[in-house]
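Is this the right way to post structure tokens for a design question? Let me know if I should format differently. Anyway, here goes:
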């Protein structure tokens, strides 16, 4: 008896995971048998960013569609109504596509009829008790709901906000953004909201994302809410992340009210010098951070406590919004051996003139899987072919960085950015990376690659046996053609 791929559902599903949408479309067109097998994977994720689906499409593919993204509340009512007949797991409305109250209530009525929904992104005005009551009924009708991203355009009643928060307390993840539109609660209303939160049972949130530019929101909503979330593992704060916020967060951690916190994302838009307070926050996290995203902070100040308290736990470090000197970056890479994902910017401007390059600091995170590194160095030498390149500070920077990247034999994704062409002159620094045998994704979107040609492609095909994707804008045709000839499975992404 002959067994085909279609006779083994698990194997069929595994194959679909590695196919792009273009590949799936080709498979569907191959034959009727293939169409029956690959249509569910092709239609599972419906993106409405560029084309609003018609009723016929939603009707014919309702058995397959599980995810709908970038749909607008202002699309036709018949399209919105059709969503209720889908067994959706994820629904994402355009973040700023809040409609009229009448349209929003219609959408909430539709959501009530999708009991399979697990993840929802939506923007609402919530400007009256009728809206908040309908919201509460909708949430009660969604027993599978785990994650909510909610943007509130208006906050005109403390009772409304209280009801919204109460209806969300059983979720695993809540992302809440309170947008400024000129309306503001009365002081007493804020006090009422705070008192209501303090009386609420403990929240179930494992992940909490808060963003608002209203000072009263921090005092009356964030502070009491933080103390009602003992299960929280991930906390992300936007514009409200200032000195008082961090001070209160440090106090809450010191009192062990967030014993499971392992992921912290902070954005400093206040201009306050709060790095020392952030150091206290890092010292009080009980179980060790797994991920850390600081935005806008002085990395030279927060690096020592990060290394001191989280060297054995930190696996993800995202510092693209906090440029640092090569010395600070080398300290982090040498002091955090468990890192698996790193995104950072090294700025030559942050290096003191009398600092020597940290050539003796070897990176210890040899298990790194993903690295995005942007080098902001002066381009006094426009090419590493120039005579002035030898002995220059820029050469010292790149020599040290590439000597360390070359040791990351487990690296699967690499993105390097620099104002200089790093890969000319007999491949330049590319030849130092021959040992990256596990590399699957090469991102050239932030690097000069105009000189890439046939020889570069042949070198990659020979030295990187697992390469599957190359990203970058306007990659030379000869480079792509040669690499595809040697590696037909390589995908080029224009970014």
């Amino acid at each position: 008896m002959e067994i085909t791929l279609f006779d083994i559902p698990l194997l069929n599903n595994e194959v679909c995971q590695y196919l792009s949408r273009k590949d799936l479309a080709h498979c569907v067109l191959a034959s009727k048998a293939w169409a029956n097998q690959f249509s569910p994977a092709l239609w599972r994720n419906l993106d409405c960013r560029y084309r609003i689906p018609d009723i016929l499409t939603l009707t014919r593919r309702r058995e397959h569609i599980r995810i709908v993204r970038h749909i607008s509340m202002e699309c036709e009512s018949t399209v919105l109504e059709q969503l209720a007949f889908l067994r959706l797991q994820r629904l994402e409305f355009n973040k700023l596509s809040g409609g009229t109250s009448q349209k929003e209530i219609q959408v909430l009525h539709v959501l009530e009829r999708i009991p399979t929904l697990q993840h929802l992104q939506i923007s609402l005005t919530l400007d009256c008790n009728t809206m908040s009551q309908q919201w509460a009924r909708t949430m009660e009708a969604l027993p599978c709901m785990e994650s909510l991203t909610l943007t509130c355009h208006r906050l005109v009643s403390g009772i409304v906000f209280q009801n919204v928060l109460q209806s969300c307390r059983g979720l695993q993840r809540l992302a809440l953004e309170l947008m400024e539109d000129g309306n503001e609660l009365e002081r007493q209303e804020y006090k009422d909201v705070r008192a209501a939160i303090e009386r609420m049972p403990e929240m179930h949130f494992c992940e909490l994302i808060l963003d608002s530019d209203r000072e009263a929101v921090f005092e009356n909503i964030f502070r009491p809410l933080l103390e009602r979330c003992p299960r929280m593992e991930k906390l992300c704060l936007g514009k409200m992340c200032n000195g008082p916020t961090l001070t209160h967060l440090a106090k809450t951690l010191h009192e062990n009210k967030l014993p499971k916190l392992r992921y912290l994302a902070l954005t400093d838009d206040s201009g306050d010098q709060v790095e020392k307070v952030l150091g206290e926050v890092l010292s009080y996290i009980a179980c060790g951070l797994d991920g850390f995203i600081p935005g806008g902070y002085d990395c030279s100040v927060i690096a020592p406590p990060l290394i001191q308290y989280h060297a054995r736990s930190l696996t993800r470090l995202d510092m693209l919004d906090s440029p640092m000197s090569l010395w600070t970056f080398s300290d982090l890479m040498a002091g955090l051996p468990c890192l698996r994902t790193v995104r950072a910017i090294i700025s030559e401007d942050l290096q003191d003139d009398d600092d020597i390059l940290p050539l003796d600091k070897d990176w210890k995170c040899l298990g790194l899987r993903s690295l995005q590194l942007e080098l902001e160095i002066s381009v006094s030498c426009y090419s590493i072919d120039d005579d002035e390149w030898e002995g220059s500070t820029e050469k010292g920077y790149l020599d040290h960085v590439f000597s360390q990247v070359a040791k990351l034999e487990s690296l699967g994704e690499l993105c390097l950015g620099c104002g200089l062409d790093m890969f000319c002159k007999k491949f330049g620094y590319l030849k130092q990376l021959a040992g990256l045998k596990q590399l699957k994704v090469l991102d050239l979107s932030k690097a000069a690659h105009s000189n890439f040609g046939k020889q570069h492609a042949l070198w990659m095909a020979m030295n990187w046996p697992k390469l599957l994707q190359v990203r970058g804008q306007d990659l030379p045709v000869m480079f792509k053609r040669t690499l595809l000839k040697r590696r037909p499975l390589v995908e080029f992404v224009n970014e």
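Format looks fine. Someone answered above. Worth noting: The longest strand covers residues 316-324. The two ends are 47 Å apart (CA to CA).
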